[in-house]
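Figure 3 (text version): structure tokens given as input.
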């Protein structure tokens, strides 16, 4: 099942599209974690993505800052995103699981 329309998710570009901020409001009551998967096309690097879990949910809100690229030993290589970013969120809690899928343009 999907989350209802009271769950609102936004994606903001930071640092010239090198970082993004994923924010959510109206998270279903009883949510213990949110698994996320972001996928996007890049210039010269094909399809790329970011995956992880958000467990820091305050009240019915969350936020997660992410790098669009890879970092190792303090050096980052950033992705040049082409087109939209597809965001898939799986909310898990005492109600079971609920899904939200949305596309964003930076």
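Below: residues designed for each position.
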């Amino acid at each position: 099942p999907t989350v209802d329309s009271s769950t609102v998710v936004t994606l903001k570009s930071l640092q010239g599209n090198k970082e993004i901020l994923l924010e959510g409001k109206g998270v279903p009551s009883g949510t213990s974690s949110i698994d996320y998967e972001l996928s996007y096309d890049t210039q010269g690097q094909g399809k790329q993505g970011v995956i992880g879990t958000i467990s820091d949910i305050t009240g019915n809100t969350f936020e997660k800052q992410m790098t669009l690229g890879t970092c190792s030993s303090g050096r980052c290589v950033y992705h040049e995103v082409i087109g939209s970013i597809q965001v898939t969120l799986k909310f898990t809690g005492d109600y079971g699981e609920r899904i939200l899928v949305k596309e964003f343009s930076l």
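The mean pLDDT is 95.
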